[in-house]
Specification:
Layout (H helix, E strand, L loop, with lengths): L2 E7 L2 H17 L7 E5 L3 H14 L5 E9 L11 H14 L7 E6 L12 H6 L8 H7 L13 H12 L5 H8 L10 H13 L3
Parallel strand pairs: 1-2, 1-3, 3-4
Helix pairs in contact: 1-7, 2-3
Length: 206
Amino acid sequence: MKKDLIILVADQDTKNLLDGLLPRIHRIENLREFTYDIRVHVNRDNGVLNDGASFLRNFLSTHNFAIAIFDFEGCGQENTKTRGEIELSLELKLVKHGWPSDNCVTIVIEPEVENWIWVNSPHLLSSIDWSMSEDIYQWLENQKFISTGQLKPTRPKEAFEAALRICGVARSPALYKAIASKASYKHCQEASFWKLIGALRTWFAQ
């Protein structure tokens, strides 16, 4: 019997984030429960972009749906194509390699997966042991990671690593899972994240 979903990602951080997020999705979105496997490409973002279609072809007989996820920054085409153009090019390759067009999507996170981490949630603060009296978003503004009114840092990875340093917390993939397993995404304004949620809503509706 086929599993529902195969996901190819570029790194362990993204895998752990999804391992924290996906088990919650059916309850939050009122979907049917779904099974999934996640694979990490050894060549990271560039590997998913260039080899993702042939890699995922191996799962046509074992899974019903496929998702490729990688960062815009580091994929090798960030200086020549838009996020949407890169997504479309890999989706077309997935179809050429046998995936029905309605059963596969590519998600390019711009600029990188840490953009999904920055949600205004107390669970983010507790996960990184934020104990400063200063609000973290005020701290981000003071440190020039965001401008007034900006919801996410322009350089999300650097901002996340700086916050961890000030808290004395080591960066690890487990942190991504801890945050994603609890933090609310209701107010998230990241288009690539909602593309993921939209695909899951379509595929696994009750």
